[in-house]
């Protein structure tokens, strides 16, 4: 007990799960977390190859944005009590190899990889937004803002 004998209860980072479609939310957050994790590994691979080149600062800036995205999905995993995918070790290696492999093709190869991945992610998020909007936009307001 702290001074004065009053117990402190830490605030929970979890959200109220009543009324949400838990299987859908679990799937969405798990998949998005894996995607953000993979994107981070792609940038790590690109930086390993091109980090000291003229394009290194651009890759670093994009990677820093992805780190913020991953941090947010780490928080959502806790808040919504979602377990990570069992494929994270695969994404760890595959993401790095994809990033390094595309970077070995040069600046254009790395940027082509980045554009392709970002377009795919954008389509994916748009699909998730439609799913949540059809169900109940008010109930999923926080997640819709993240996407």
From TrEMBL:
InterPro entries: Ferritin-like_SF, Ubq_synth_Coq7. The keyword Electron transport does not apply. One of its GO terms (cellular component) is nucleus. It comes from the Eukaryota. The keyword Secreted does not apply. GO terms for molecular function: 3-demethoxyubiquinol 3-hydroxylase activity; metal ion binding. Keywords: Iron, Membrane, Metal-binding, Monooxygenase, Oxidoreductase, Ubiquinone biosynthesis. One of its GO terms (biological process) is determination of adult lifespan. It holds the Pfam family COQ7. SUPFAM superfamilies: Ferritin-like (SSF47240). This is 5-demethoxyubiquinone hydroxylase, mitochondrial. The gene is COQ7.
């Amino acid at each position: 007990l702290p001074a004065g004998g009053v117990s402190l209860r830490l605030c929970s980072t979890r959200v109220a799960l009543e009324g949400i479609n838990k299987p859908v939310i679990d799937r969405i957050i798990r998949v998005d977390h894996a995607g953000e994790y993979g994107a981070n590994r792609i940038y790590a691979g690109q930086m390993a190859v091109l980090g000291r080149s003229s394009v290194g600062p651009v890759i670093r800036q994009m990677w820093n944005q992805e780190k913020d995205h991953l941090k947010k999905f780490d928080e959502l995993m806790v808040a919504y009590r979602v377990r990570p995918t069992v494929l994270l070790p695969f994404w760890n290696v595959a993401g790095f190899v994809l990033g390094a492999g595309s970077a070995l093709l040069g600046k254009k190869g790395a940027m082509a990889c980045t554009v392709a991945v970002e377009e795919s992610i954008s389509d994916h998020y748009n699909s998730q937004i439609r799913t949540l909007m059809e169900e109940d936009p008010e109930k999923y307001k926080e997640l819709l803002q993240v996407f």
